[in-house]
Amino acid sequence: MTGRAPHEPGKHTPSHDEGQVPSPRGPGHEQEPAYGARAHGTGPEVPGPDGDQAPGPVHIGRGTHEPGQRLPALAAMAVLAAACAIGLVLTWMYASGIVRAYAWPALLASALGVITYLVGLFIFRRIRPVRAPRLTVAVPATVWGILAATGVAAYANTGMGGLWGQILGYETAGDWTAALTAPLNEEILKLAGVVVIAVAFPRALRGPVDGFVLGALVGLGFEVAENFLYALNSISLSGALAPATSVTDSTVVRVVLTGLGSHWAMTAIAGTAVGVLAAVDWRPGPRRALGALGLVLLAMLGHFFFDSPLLGEGLVGIAAKVAFVFLSAMAVYFLVRHTHRSRVRKSLAQQGSELGMRRSDAKKLASRHGRNKALARVARPERPDVRRRQEKMVEEAEDRAARHAVS
Fold this sequence. Notes:
Blueprint: H1 70-101, H2 103-126, H3 135-168, H4 170-200, H5 208-237, H6 243-257, H7 263-278, H8 286-307, H9 315-355, H10 359-364, H11 368-376, H12 383-403
């Protein structure tokens, strides 16, 4: 985003103390440089927020790809489309019979799924600090969970369940198959979706906080599809005496009772590992590689505990399992959120000093409320230009935060 604001003599311009982001150029400049960038062959690099030398390539906008990323991104988009198409076919083969047999309950289950999806999409986009991920990224992430991961997992779980029956005996396998199967098949399939999204949209997944949010979105999609299938299966398990009631009860239990510790939380933890690797251009040292592996194993452990017969099937046991997964996810989230926001604020304070802003005003741009409050103090005709300058400052700050993530 390199459009320049027109110079309009005579128009009232609020002072820097009123919260406006000043223009980074003088009236004689013909081209507005990107924040934190420098032209090839010009002066020294701008120090980064931690005092080291920040890289100096020309700033890349949110919707573009850096050199060398376009071909992998196109390949990832092709994988995304193919995997979702295959998942759609497999899901239809798996569920078409019961959908035809119980058309109206299936429509009710779909409506409840749409509500769950929309609420979850709103929440998980909002929990990303500073800025929400674009819908053009968030929606494909959920679609992977709904179609690609669910469709393949339905058949993989069935196949592996038969294998555990032969190894453990069918009585023991009946208790432990879900705990031994789902953490492997489902978590790997969902994690693969986060990786595909990271390659297809490299500007959308640059650090741990992005991995957490996009992982939560992939898990949301998987949860919505699984809720739909479980709701339909509950009709047969209850003898089809009250199909609508069976669908409603199943959905309420899975959303209200166990929703806090469900797939979104597990995949958010594992997705953070993808962010840890993406932050260093997929070339981690031993410490980061072990950290990423630990996050994936934590997600699998949570899934294993959630599906295991440990602690029984009573309310206390279920609450303990949900709490373990949810609190694990929250511990990861608040750690990466705090780190990301502090680095963004530090970068904004430095940029603000360079532009003549007060450091406190610059730091406030790290929140949506702070940016909106600053815009409210600006004359309405000037708000689009000020908003663009805000976005450039925040974009550069998040770039620097990603470069220094988990350092």
